[in-house]
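TA notes, week 10

Several of you asked for a full example with nothing omitted. So below is the full record: structure tokens for the whole chain, then the designed sequence directly under it. When grading your own attempts, check the secondary structure regions first.
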């Protein structure tokens, strides 16, 4: 590495300090946290997966029909930690909990990774930019930040911020519990779920917002959700009829990661589970499933599932495709 500090020190003698200091900061900061605004290209490698390694022909899991799955890798160190997913017309947008958006065309290997350069906190660190939930639509992206308990909205191309809010009802949610799951409901309302261990009554907090969650003036109603025992909600998606698919995850030292997908509906002040759709546990391929997306293909309801590898070499980024009710 070329040592640029002596030259910058000489520069400060002839350039006013207010100019020289920003120059110094821009050079010595590492690129990952230095405010790099330009998107970077990356190559993704997709390795096909069987739903059940013990029974490679298996395609049925509960009410889901397995259409394909892949372990996804990239040489780019920024790829991973996928916590939310949006799929539309063959284009995928994944949100990492490190504050990056990953975009690619389904069926292709070329991807774009772009950082959320503006968000909660003064520093570009996971503590401030723990981005966990994503909704895309109407020419904007809504992103929920777990640690900050804030919702921001961005231009989908430039990622320039368009609005932000810190809902008062989320103020008491824990640093590792807030805005984990978010969905836009038919009619424009938003649902946000807390990721937390269930309280004494077996429920966790949720918010029903009567409009844009990044607008501080939006009215909010408190709800309660009862996840499957021992599980925590990590993502949610809304069906056209207003019902909800909620992804719930559990981790145990000896059992590893398991997940349960349930169908639910909003009823009064609660979210009521109607039934279990699928249970992800060995011998079915499992990891830290956190991201859920719904789309349509030729009249079929398609469900996508992605895992968060926590940037841990012992885990994998998995992408699974199912038909709901197939």
């Amino acid at each position: 590495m070329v040592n640029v500090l002596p030259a910058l020190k000489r520069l400060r003698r002839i350039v006013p300090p207010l100019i020289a200091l920003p120059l110094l900061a821009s050079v010595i900061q590492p690129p990952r946290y230095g405010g790099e605004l330009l998107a970077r290209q990356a190559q993704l490698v997709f390795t096909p997966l069987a739903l059940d390694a013990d029974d490679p022909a298996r395609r049925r899991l509960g009410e889901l029909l397995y259409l394909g799955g892949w372990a996804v890798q990239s040489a780019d160190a920024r790829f991973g930690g996928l916590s939310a997913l949006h799929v539309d017309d063959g284009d995928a947008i994944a949100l990492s909990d490190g504050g990056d958006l990953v975009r690619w065309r389904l069926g292709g290997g070329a991807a774009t990774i772009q950082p959320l350069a503006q968000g909660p906190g003064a520093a570009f660190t996971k503590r401030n930019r723990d981005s966990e939930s994503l909704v895309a639509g109407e020419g904007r992206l809504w992103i929920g930040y777990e640690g900050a308990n804030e919702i921001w909205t961005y231009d989908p191309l430039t990622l320039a911020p368009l609005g932000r809010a810190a809902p008062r009802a989320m103020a008491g949610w824990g640093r590792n519990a807030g805005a984990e799951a978010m969905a836009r409901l038919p009619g424009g309302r938003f649902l946000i779920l807390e990721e937390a261990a269930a309280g004494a009554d077996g429920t966790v907090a949720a918010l029903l917002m009567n409009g844009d969650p990044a607008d501080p003036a939006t009215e909010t109603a408190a709800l309660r959700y009862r996840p499957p025992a021992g599980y925590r909600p990590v993502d949610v998606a809304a069906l056209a009829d207003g019902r909800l698919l909620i992804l719930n995850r559990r981790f145990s030292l000896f059992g590893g990661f398991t997940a349960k997908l349930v169908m639910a509906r909003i009823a009064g002040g609660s979210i009521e589970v109607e039934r279990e759709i699928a249970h992800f546990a060995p011998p079915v391929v499992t990891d830290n499933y956190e991201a859920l997306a719904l789309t349509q293909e030729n009249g079929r309801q398609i469900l996508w599932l992605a895992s968060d590898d926590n940037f841990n070499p012992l885990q994998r980024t998995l992408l699974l495709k199912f038909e709901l009710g197939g």
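The chain has a mean pLDDT of 87. Use that as a sanity check on your answer.
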